[in-house]
Amino acid sequence: MPDRLEEYLGTVREQVRWKRARDGATQELRTHLLDQRDAYLEQGMDEEAATKESVRQMGDPVEVGVALDRVHRPKPQWGLLALVGVLLCMGYGAQLLLRDVALASPNNLEETFYESRWLVGAVIGVVLLFAVYFLDYTLLARRPLLCYWAGVLILIGVFNRSHRINGRYFEIQFWMLLAPVLLAVLIYAMRGKRWFGLLVSIGGSALLAGLALLIPNITIALLVFGAGVLMTILSVWRGWMGLPVKRTMTGIGIFLFLFVLWLWACVVTSEYVSRRLQMAIDPAQDPLGYGYHALAVRSLLSDAKWIGQGDVTFMGYRSAELMLPEIASSTLLTWVIHRLGWAAGIALIGVFVLLLGWMARKALKHRGMLGSLIALAVVFTLAVQVGSFVLFNLGLPLLGIISLPLVSYGHWAMLANMVLIGLALSVFREESLPVQNGKLQTRKQMPLTQLIFWKDGDLVIGFSRLRQVR
Amino acid sequence: MGADKSQLAGSAAMLIMKLLDGQDMYGYQMIEELRRRSDHTFELKAGTLYPLLHSLEEKGYITSYQDDADAARPRKYYHLTKSGREQLREKQEEWRRYSRAVDLVMGGGVCFA
Asked: What is the pTM for the complete model shown?
């Protein structure tokens, strides 16, 4: 390319302060300059004159660059970061209150509170969040299959090194919270690969869900598989898979119906799962065994006030701190409702609903495929954690709990959730990056005017338009 | 004779979206088409066009995709979205009201645009 054109583009690029946006912002200018120069050459100009004129036609490079710079700036997510900050404050506040109540109690409640350890986890988590926030997530797009398999191998490695506690491998449970993001990368790699891509997406989701079942953790298995199916459905709906939408959605619907039937058959034939579900629905069948947790929670909630501390009328207990196990990590919401009232509990969940709703909206509006899928994976993972925690703390332990993100005590969960939130915020921060991946158009979607059109007096049949584009 | 720059600047977004309403186009094609349809009245500079396109894309009025029919010179095509079509209709309505008002002041009669 002639020096003059490169010089022009170089000046434009220098005005775009966000380095990552420079290539995308200026690539079209390069093509345009060459097209314009070729047009002048066809008109009979010599190369030097054609180059000079095409550069002149572009306009002042500094002005052009400044205009592009104005459009392509990273968007700090102050609102979402503020909500994360609010949740962390609420979490720390709850942990501090638990400590104060435990210290003031005449009973020995030293094992009840972990507020200083919670704080350490939160501080490390915040550092991780910002580290991921400023990372370039689009690096995953360069070798997505390699990233997926590397992630799977890492998870298997963590599985092998995890400690077995109460019949379950412990650390891997929290690392598996990152599995939906891996699936997002896999599904991105399958874009345009039609039925093969669809099968691999579902198969990859089943593989990671199977790993979760080996922990064993049914909640995480459902979370991972559910995330994979949801992202696959979105990819089909948006045309990213290159499949006919209606027919494929019908097929997926049939598959999901059969899957639910199979799941129901597994539940009915598994004594352990059936019993757990029975206890969740009617815990009074085993009040001192499996049903204790749910009964204790329901008793506290039924005696809770709208504002202020509720009563304790369960099995002769005098305080909630004695009757509720693992308050800091598992039953924190129930305890908050008991101590401060329903208003406090609803306010806490309200902030989660606001955060997740906002993130979901941004995820669905995001223009890039990979960014949209990653953000959606994060939202789904957070939502399942919040949902299962709320159900458990309302006396409906239908699913096992993982954590209440940013609020309940648990280092591994805190760090995993901070990484996830940082990743989603990184995606939203880069909303104004020029979109590099393209919209897929199948033959049916392409209007006739795009396939057959006039150009410069010639009738053009665009066979190239029938090819899949990136 | 070219139009006043400020007149073009104000309605460039509307004109670009109108071009895309007909078919997907790439940048150079839009400039040529605008020149042709306006009988050489509008000469939009590329340096004005591309920031405008990127801005419209960021607002969700248009989307883009790459056509690599010519591997040596891949082209980025733009497509008008549903919200872009709604925005175009609004802009067209604004323009009709504006031009009617100008005609009333200048000519004292009604102009059917």
From this structure: 0.82
